[in-house]
Amino acid sequence: MSEAGNNLDWISRFEELGALPAADRSFIESHARVVQLGPEKKVFAPGMKPDAFLLLLDGKVRVQQVGAGGREIILYRVSGGESCIMTTACLLSDEEYLAEGITETDVTAVALVRSDFDHLIAHSPAFRRLVFNKYASRITRLMALVEDVAFQRIDTRLARKLLELSRGDGVIDITHHALAVELGTAREVISRQIKRFMAEGLINTSRGHIEITDRERLENFAHQA
Amino acid sequence: MSEAGNNLDWISRFEELGALPAADRSFIESHARVVQLGPEKKVFAPGMKPDAFLLLLDGKVRVQQVGAGGREIILYRVSGGESCIMTTACLLSDEEYLAEGITETDVTAVALVRSDFDHLIAHSPAFRRLVFNKYASRITRLMALVEDVAFQRIDTRLARKLLELSRGDGVIDITHHALAVELGTAREVISRQIKRFMAEGLINTSRGHIEITDRERLENFAHQA
DNA sequence: GCCTTGTGGTGACTAAGTCACCGACAACCC
DNA sequence: GGGTTGTCGGTGACTTAGTCACCACAAGGC
């Protein structure tokens, strides 16, 4: 974890921070630490307790859970401009992390130690809004995830995930294993489903690579039921 | 929804409210509405938006999601002394309810309209703590639920649920269908698992009734993996 | 008595997950 | 180049979970 200088102009890049009153902005500027991390680094792990509030400026962090049998599932991702609710939740309720957070890209974040976080929450309505708006909408997303896992067929879930991950050109670079982790299932299940999609002519695949060839029919799978 | 007088002494019954500074307490007393509801009433449903913050004084509300195929799963319960995060989340982020809330007993609650809620959040650190502590710990519970649904076998999950629901005497009055809703699975799956537990001598059952006869071995099922 | 509703039991089937293994291929070292 | 190693993906055989259709029985209303 390397530290960068404190006098970058990150605060203006971060739109919602830019909207804060001048007093809050200068409080943050003088108290926050800017932190940088490479890709595939662990930000936190189960059993740890957060010591600082984190605001992502740039990059992406995935938060995933590891089950008993070693299977994993991705709960959500935090990207530039957002804070991690897991961290906020644990800070607020003084609990341990249950999941792990892993950087997926180079990441730049702002860290505020607990006492500074408490001070801002207490004194800045704008900062409170910034923290709790995202926080709240993440809860509804988590509930939607429960429904997804409990009730949706995996062909539906895989089709959705492929569409979500595909860039405009319908190309995805990902392994079957990584897709299994996205959905919290087993690699073989993904492999077989991918084979079926390919037999149907919906996609083309090669090692570590998937190409959507019939987006329309794939969307039919995604939106069924 | 019937209204009771505003001058009950509910505020002292609610320990965490009792800890609030006098100014906050009197603000709540003068602005809050006390609401009473019978059992099995819908408090909110998917698509609605909350218009007031709710603090449960007495009773129990279950929050559950209905999936596409009509299957249901219970996300969590709110009981006396707690606020409903779903409501708080939707208030804070201006979103619609995704799940439904149903009273399980007679319920007494305190309702604070949005503007009064905002005022307290802004001006009372103690009220903020009260709201967000529970809020935060509920998030970690939701994540644990995701793991449970995604990775645990249903014999494990059922054993756990039976132990959780059993009173001290190991007696539970519940139908197979209701158990299926608790776990987000199908009634037949529960019926068969119950049959296996009975064949193993772990429980005794009759219509709408389950009795744990070998708690120790049932706990082995619950704690496996 | 009959009829309706709620409850749970069951067989036959499909879907999903597990286990064990294997082959293809890429990366790396020598 | 050849050899080793690790990742990636394919597959058969099996178990577990969920679905579908139907039936039997109990409780309560009429």
Based on the model shown, name its key terms.
47% helix; disordered N terminus; four-stranded antiparallel sheet; alpha+beta; homodimer; DNA-binding; 225 residues
General description of the model:
The structure is a homodimer of 225-residue chains. With 225 residues, chain A is an alpha+beta fold. Helix content of chain A is 47%, strand content 24%. In chain A, the strands form 3 sheets. A 4-stranded antiparallel β-sheet of chain A has the order 1-2-8-4. The longest helix of chain A is centred in the middle third of the chain and has 27 residues, at 125-151. Chain A starts with a strand and ends with a helix. Chain A binds a DNA duplex (30 and 30 nucleotides) through helix 9.
Number of helices of chain A: 10
Distance separating the two termini of chain A: 46 Å
| Largest contact between chains | A-B, 43 and 43 residues
Mean pLDDT rating of chain A: 90
* CA-based shape of chain A: elongated
Oligomeric state of the chains in view: homodimer
* Alpha-carbon Rg of chain A, integer: 20 Å
Strand order of the largest sheet of chain A: 1-2-8-4
Q: What is the H/E string of chain A?
A: EHHHEEEEEHEEHHHEHHEEH
List how many beta strands of chain A DSSP finds: 11
Helix content of chain A: 40-55%
Low-confidence stretches of chain A: 1-7
Largest sheet of chain A: 4 strands, antiparallel
Helix/sheet category of chain A: alpha+beta
Strand content of chain A: 15-25%
